[in-house]
Design goal:
Elements (H helix, E strand, L loop, with lengths): L1 H36 L12 E6 L16 H18 L3 E4 L11 H14 L4 E8 L10 E5 L3 H18 L7 E3 L2 H5 L4 E8 L3 H7 L2 H24 L7
Parallel strand pairs: 1-2, 1-3, 3-6, 4-5
Antiparallel strand pairs: 4-6
Bound molecules: zinc ion.
Length: 241
């Protein structure tokens, strides 16, 4: 009788262990997923930073018009809001240059000047402008980050973001590139323009209108920003003279 009882107990114990192991696996995996869904471990690096998120164009200015009549201004606004969300989750303060389908000024140059002024007057830590690329040939594709030439900090930021776009999106091999743009030239903080993809490429255009894809892009940009700050924290302090 005793033996049978012990045997039964053993079976029970093994059963319980199996349940516990299955639970741990599920929960463990779940929490890892949750962490990935929320923010990476480097989020401490961006807490309390003031970040300008600038979805390009808006209102009377549609930006690039692509495959199937898709509009740049709509894609970048949605992606910008996703970026705002993930940056907020990490404790950053975000100022959006626009949150609706409106231009800041009907004249293009004034519109850009207002975006730059907003960043400079608020003394923001970073300026992240989101755009969509377009090209006459439909075969070009892939997200790419641009920075103002001769701005070393902007270059570091652009490279950090581009590296995450390559790693997370897995569909771009483009490199961060120096360019001369009004906004990145005139903002007084590290500034980048992220062209999140080519609206002239039908396959990429179809991806860019999807919430899930926009969220993934936002996570990649966020990750790049976090890495940029984490990297800065690791830099050897310079001797003061
Ligand atoms: Zn644009």
């Amino acid at each position: 009788m005793r033996l049978v009882y012990i045997k039964a107990l053993r079976v029970k114990k093994i059963g319980l262990l199996a349940v516990a192991a299955a639970l741990a696996l599920t929960l463990g995996l779940g929490s890892v997923m949750a962490l990935y869904e929320a923010v990476p471990a480097t989020s401490w690096a961006i807490a309390n930073r003031l970040i300008i998120v600038d979805p390009g164009h808006g209102g009377i200015d549609p930006g690039a018009v692509g495959y199937n009549g898709l509009l740049e201004k709509e894609i970048v606004l949605k992606t910008g809001k996703q970026l705002q969300k993930v940056l907020n989750q990490a404790g950053a303060d975000v100022v959006m240059t626009r949150t609706t389908d409106t231009e800041l000024n009907r004249r293009k140059r004034e519109d850009l000047a207002l975006r730059v002024d907003m960043a400079n007057k608020k003394n923001a830590d970073l300026y992240i402008s989101i755009h969509v690329n377009s090209f006459p040939s439909s075969r070009w594709r892939g997200a790419q980050t641009f920075y103002q030439k001769n701005q070393p900090e902007s270059k570091k930021l652009a490279e950090a973001i581009q590296s995450e776009l390559i790693g997370i999106m897995k569909n771009t091999t483009r490199k961060a590139k120096p360019e001369d743009y009004y906004t990145t030239r005139n903002t007084k903080m590290p500034a980048v323009i992220v062209e999140i993809g080519f609206i002239s490429n039908p396959a990429e255009a179809k991806l860019m209108v999807k919430n899930e894809y926009q969220r993934k892009l936002a996570n990649a940009i966020y990750s790049g920003i976090a890495n940029y700050y984490a990297e800065k924290a690791n830099e050897t302090p310079q001797a003061r003279q």
